[in-house]
Amino acid sequence: MSMDSEINEFNELLAGLKAQKKMLMSSLSDLEKDKEKEKKNHGNLITAGKYIREVAEATQDKIKFHISEFVTAGIQSIISDDSEFVVEFDTKRNQVECQMWLRNGEDLVSPFGADGGGACDVIATLLRLSMWAINKSRPVILLDEPFKFLHSVEYQERCSAMINGISRELGVQFIIISAQPDIVSNADAIFEVKKGRVEKIK
To answer: CA 20 to 30 Å from 122, out of 36, 73, 151, 198?
Structure first.
């Protein structure tokens, strides 16, 4: 092999290596750009996550305040002036859980504990009404046998007055089905169903 052909072969090899180097440098540049883009995206995701958490916490605080105030006012107007309904949001394993308590002095008890009965019935109805007040999805709420475990006539009359007040305050119409006359004592109209016949009695 002549010297010229060796030089030509070497030049071809060198040109091939230069082309490979250029290609690798271009790929490296693209990878560095992608890395910067991913770094920026990661930073944006962290910032977005921080804002989402802040908005979620602010929303939870508003919901917590609304439900606590609404249910507490209802409980205090019907059952006890000392009780306070407490709502807490806990995050466990990236899941938000809602805890509800009834505070009486220093004691925290479950509102749906073994006592059940009337207090549980009142709280469940108040929770439903507080959720409606947040959404205000319809101007009519149907309550089927609300406060059915509340056997005290005095408490039933208080419930009736509370429902009447909520109706006027929030502009919502209640349709109540009840076998307890004191629950509907404040109703604008009362219909009685007997043996399939409907009769207006108020």
So the answer is: 198
